[in-house]
Amino acid sequence: MSVMTTRRRLHDGRMTFVVVAFAGFFAAVSLKAAWLTLHDDDARRKSSVVRKDRIPRPDIVDRNGILLAADMPFASIFAEPYRMIDPEGAVEQLKTVFPNLNEARLLRQFSNRRLKFVWVKRQVRPEVEARVLALGIPGIRVMKDKRRVYPMGPLTSHVVGYANIDSKGLTGIERYLDTSGALFTASLARPDGRSAQPAKLSIDVRVQHALRDELDKAVKKFRAIGAGGLVMDVHTGEILALVSLPDFNPNAPVKTGAQKKDRLNRMTAGVYELGSVIKAVTFAMALDLGTATLDKKYDARFPLRVGRAKIHDYHAQRRWLSVPEIFTHSSNIGTARMALEVGLEQHKAFLDKVGLRERLRTELPESARPLLPRRWTTITSVTASFGHGFAVQPLQGAAVIAALVNGGVLVPPTFLKRDAETAKAMGRRVISEETSRKMRYLFRLNAVKGTARRAAAPGWRVGGKTGTAEKVINGKYSKDHRLTSFMGAFPMDDPKYVVLVMLDDPRPLPETHGYATSGWNAVPVAGNVIARIAPLLGVPPRLDDEVAKEELARWRKLHKNAERRAGAGPGARRKQG
Amino acid sequence: MKSLTTINVLLVIGLVGFAMFLYGREQQTRMAEREIRHIRAEIAREEESMRLLRIEWAMLNSPMRLERLVMRHLDLRPVDPARIRAVGDVLADVPRQKPESPAAGVRSLDELIARIQKGEAAR
Q1: Is residue B118 assigned to a domain?
Q2: Subunit contact B82:A152, Cβ cutoff 8 A
Q3: What is the pLDDT of residue A569?
Q4: pLDDT, tens only, A83-120
Q5: Is A73 on the interface with B (CB under 8 A)?
Q6: Given A157, A276, A331, A436, which residue is catalytic?
Q7: What is the SS3 string spanning A93-162?
Q8: Is B73 in contact with A66 (Cβ distance < 8 A)?
Q9: Parent domain of B53
Q10: Has A187 been annotated as catalytic?
Q11: Which residues of chain B have a CB within 8 Å of the CB of A71?
């Protein structure tokens, strides 16, 4: 009896054990099955592609949609030897994609089970990446990353700026997109959140190239330290081209010295005495306020005494000069008299009105404050009237000149594409239409008879004002080192574009008869620029008057000389060959 | 009692059938999902290569590079401003043709078109 019960108990115990064991086993299997079915494994961990997520930066394009900056995707292939099953096989398979692989090294590394990470090949093209992934080798994975590239290289370096490795904008528009332009950047994002529309700039790469090329030649020819220039639409304030030399290659900013001091953007981050170019502002003021008229004459017989200072003329005429004569001879005395006549407070108020006394802000983060004497006295008013002791951003000067010729409306300059209506709404009248018409006359006269007559852009009715400022070296004005500039617009009968060319310390040449003033360097350079860009911008030349014919003859001579200087040229080579 | 058994059997059969149907559907869904993943990856890859090609295109068309190539290989020089004319001006300069010529012009134009079309076809 007791034996039976013991046996029975034993039997029951076994049964329970078996049942529980089986139940447990099935439970485990079904749980695992349920886990695998229901739990969505993290796709990233399963995938053999590692993505480095970066904030998408919008592409930057010019006004015609040409790519100036873009994120370039690239893939790098790496191995995780500790997860590798068959190192020899892996190397063998990789060799089918990369024939010249260092076999021995990879085999050694792959066989080392403690190694966690080995680069196989960095920066490969997408199709190569696809082929590697198709091999499906365990332990071989792909890392995706992006790099900012600038297809135009140094061409737009100062406008577009550059971003660092972490995709953070450091200078130029790239910085604008991250900082003050963050709202604009956000407006470009597409609903999917992964991509963005490109940021469209006002720049035209064709114009930009023409300007940069001519400035580059000028720097070499006149052995200048640097140069700068810009082209701006007078009605919309859009900047079509802005160059500052020396520049850098944003694809390798550190190597090409982007952070060096002389690579600053001379057009916005530096302030310069534009010299006589500023006289145009004084003229517009006097004409607009009615203190001067085109036929009024001013005494320029003797140097003008203001307090302890004496105002001289460079090309002293020693006679009474009419207003147009003061402009074309660029007489300091005459201009000073005009400013004195307007009066101290009125002069200051006008400079405030055109915004020359405050910092101009555009999209570019690099902007400098104008340099003016702190106290506004008679002598500062007089020297400021002809641009002495009065330094502004060249872009700021260009914006004011644009207002003087476009009918009298000051439009804030921009580096982003802008339509005519927006520009109209932003514009602010600073002088009357009538004054603007007179200014156009003076500018054109100066290019026909005055200091700017070497701007030979035949038939494009260039008008403008030259400026030659002595550079301040060791706190003193230097007689031998100059900053020459030309500020003009074309076509002068209905101005469309303002052109500014500035050369930093051009040297005199035998060709310029030992002169190094603006008329001998900045003006011809600007003429070349205009003759190159006007056809691109759709401004037809008009060659029916005598002046234009003269200009044409000069232009032809100039180009013949240039060709001769360039040697036999490609044509001759081809004839030989 | 017997009908209960029949119902039971039917229920079991129905259950098995339904299970099979569900299993089939799930498999289909999985296949479809996998396909979507593949296509998405392919689209991403295509987008990337488009991006690369666009960058390459911009680099190759950079005005600095084009000018360098033109200077080296072509015999081009800046256009003389006198050669820039409006279409109207050019037409005014063309010597006036004889009155009979329009018809001839049309005929030759037709011929030209025919020739071009033949040429296209041949190519």
Answers
A1: no
A2: no
A3: 44
A4: 888 888 888 888 888 888 888 888 888 888 888 888 88
A5: yes
A6: A276
A7: HHHHHCCCCCHHHHHHHHHCCCCCCEEEEEEECHHHHHHHHHHCCCCEEEEEEEEEECCCHHHHHHHHCC
A8: no
A9: 9-93
A10: no
A11: 51
Please tell me the total count of domains within chain B: 1
Name residue, tokens 């460079």: A314
C-beta atoms of B73 and A570 within 8 A: yes
3-state SS, residue A69: strand
Contact A51, A144 (CB under 8 A): yes
Kindly give, in sequence order, each residue whose CB lies less than 8 Å from that of residue B53, ignoring residues fewer than 6 positions away. none
A366-to-A165, A242, A264, A500, A502 alpha-carbon distances in Å:
21, 13, 9, 19, 18
**Which pLDDT score, from 0 to 100, does residue A46 have?**
59
Q: How close is the nearest chain A Cα to the Cα of B46, in Å? A: 8
Whether the bond between A491 and the residue before it is cis, its omega within 30 degrees of 0, is yes
Nearest to A153 among B51, B62, B74 (CB): B62
pLDDT tens figures, A393-424: 999 999 999 999 999 999 999 999 999 899 99
pLDDT in tens, A425-470: 999 999 999 999 999 999 999 998 888 888 878 889 999 999 988 8
CA distance B120 to chain A (A): 32
Confidence of residue B83 (pLDDT cuts 50, 70, 90): confident
Task: Give exposure, A298-332, as e/b (b: 16+ Cβ within 10 Å).
Answer: bebeeebebeeeebebeeeeeeebebbbbbbbbbb
The residue among A35 and A273 whose pLDDT is bigger is A273
The percent of residues in chain A predicted with pLDDT above 90, rounded, is 39
**Which residue in B has a C-alpha nearest to residue A570's C-alpha?**
B75
Residue A57 clears pLDDT 80, i.e. is over it = yes
The residues near A217 (Cβ < 8 Å, ≥ 6 apart) are A525
Nearest residue on chain B to A557, judged by CA atoms? B80
B3 domain-assigned: no
Distance from CA of A554 to the nearest CA of B (A): 12
- A205 neighbourhood in chain B, CB within 8 Å: 62-63
Q: What residues form DSSP beta bridges with A504?
A: A226, A483
Contact assignment for A70 to B54 by CB distance below 8 Å: yes
CB contact under 8 A, B62 and A155: yes
Smallest CA–CA separation between B3 and chain A, in Å? 32
ipTM comes to 0.75
Domains belonging to chain A, first-starting first, are: 51-200 (3.90.1310.10), 207-542 (3.40.710.10)
pLDDT tens column, A169-216: 899 999 998 888 888 888 887 776 667 788 999 999 999 999 999 999
- Chain B nearest-CA residue for A566: B71
Is B36 part of a structural domain of the chain? yes
**Pair type for strands A297-300 and A319-322:** antiparallel
Q: Is residue B31 part of a domain?
A: yes
Q: Are strands A60-61 and A199-200 parallel, antiparallel or unpaired?
A: parallel
Instruction: Tell if the CB–CB gap between A72 and B79 is shorter than 8 Å.
Output: no
Element housing A478 (H / E):
strand A476-490
* Closest partner CB to B51 (pick from A70, A153, A460): A70
